[in-house]
């Protein structure tokens, strides 16, 4: 067993298969999970900090509401990305397993919208930092949802004026469907 296999088996979730079913690079998966966990912790800390001091120092209602919304988003990010941080809540593992079964684009949309919503209500530096980290996690999941890049030969065939050569039965991707973007 190589060193990278040992590290990947150490970082693996309890219910995961040893063989990856999709072709996403391991570094992208673990960087999205790591940044998501860090973003959830930072966002939860800053949102609780700002909400408490916002009430004490009579901050605007929009900023207090934004921090409450950010704390809810941060908790949900922690539940999905690092369920070990919330292990004393009963439903966390079930929710985390449900989120793992969803396609990557679902997480991407949720994290991007969750990163933008509190920022619309209040523009504070700590909210910007917290929402930015959650948004970056959404971008990483969006890259994972796009999938693997095509080979050089496939891209050249799509770019040719005659279009790609017909191939056997396989799933179609955006790269293989030139009618999506080809000018008339």
- C-alpha Rg (nearest Å): 21 Å
The helix content, as a percent range, equals 55-70%
Q: What is the count of helical runs?
A: 7
How many structural domains does the protein architecture include?
Answer: 2
> Biggest sheet: strands, sense, closure?
none
SS strand fraction: under 5%
Q: Low-confidence parts lasting 5 or more residues at pLDDT below 50?
A: none
Mean pLDDT: 79
Structural category is: mainly alpha
> For the terminal residues, how far apart are their CA atoms?
53 Å
**What's the β-strand tally?**
0
**Shape assignment:** globular
Give the topology string: H per helix, E per strand: HHHHHHH
Describe, in plain words, how this protein is organized in 3D.
The protein is mainly α. It folds into 2 domains: 123 residues; 35 residues, no CATH class. It contains 7 helices and no strands. The longest helix is centred in the N-terminal third of the chain and has 31 residues. The radius of gyration is 21 Å and the shape is globular. The mean pLDDT is 79.
